[in-house]
Amino acid sequence: MTSPVAENLTLSDFDFDLPESLIAQEPSVQRDRSRLLAFNRMSGSIAHCFFSDIEQYLVPGDLLVLNDTKVFPCRLLVKKPGGGRAEIFLLSEQGVNLWDALVKGGVSAGKTLNITAGIEAEITGEGADNIRKVRFHGINDIRTILPEIGKTPLPPYIKREADMTDRERYQTVYAAHEGAVAAPTAGLHFTGGLLQRLETKGIQLAKVTLHVGPGTFQPVRVETITDHRMLPERYSITEDAAARINNAKAEGRRVIAVGTTSVRTIETAAAGGNRVVPGEGSSELFIYPGYQFTVTDGIITNFHLPKSTLLMLVSAFAGRERMLSAYHTAVAEKYRFYSYGDAMVIV
Questions:
Q1: Domain total for the chain?
Q2: End-to-end CA gap in the chain
Q3: Is the distance from CB of 231 to CB of 210 less than 8 angstroms?
Q4: Residues 299 and 182 in one domain
Q5: Statement to judge: residues 285 and 257 lie in one domain
Q6: What is the CA radius of gyration of the chain?
Q7: What is the pLDDT of residue 224?
Q8: For the chain, which ranges sit under pLDDT 50?
């Protein structure tokens, strides 16, 4: 599903120069000591502080919407039948030992890959978007040993192998429902203590779940952005979370989404109206300039890739020219970009 209103914009309109040295390779020493760029979308004004200062930009009655999906160790390094290495990147479970996955290493359907002693993965079919069907043999349920054999799925722009530190840091402190292949990274900056401090101040919380899939980070390969299609991602919203969001809107309080995945979840569930409908579903919502937000009043987010759907989303919220100007400021001020980078609050 695309935005209902589109401007005449192309992929090149969302490009900017980013030095490779600003792409964060490690998380900050402390979650809430990342830097924070505070951006006023009406005036275009910018302030610089630390994420622990986020409460300066929130007022009692504000509702933060958090995505409580949990990243699972979905990268499997495997061996080909004739030797050589391959990789299985698990996406979603279709049944016990039957998964949709991405497979790297030039492995075609019908091949069987060795995972560990007595456990194999059979490539049973190929589908759209290079997604393969994979069936596991030699174990009752592959999910039970993923914590031992699987690796944390760090993004490809992090040029190192994941380690045990990433098991904790590439996960929000409130992660609860396993199913994501990438973290909702805006939430990585929160600590339990910071969330408690915000609640004491009168900031309310609502948790939704969107299992982040490869579609969130899929490159846009078309120049006309309206031709891009988002891959579906599963979401769920409880009745309690929907009630909290709807009550905030009805009472004129701000709904501030933590991360682009939270934005897409609540905007999808509202379906163009001003009330969020609880339940489960699949989001293919592509938000770019021209989209009319109906639920979201503010966004806490990280800094995104040039030409990405994530940059298009925040540009839709704050204005493309103003957002690119803020990004130029972030580059000049040497903010750290992407998943393990610094944060921005747009209010």
A1: 2
A2: 26
A3: no
A4: yes
A5: yes
A6: 20
A7: 94
A8: 1-5
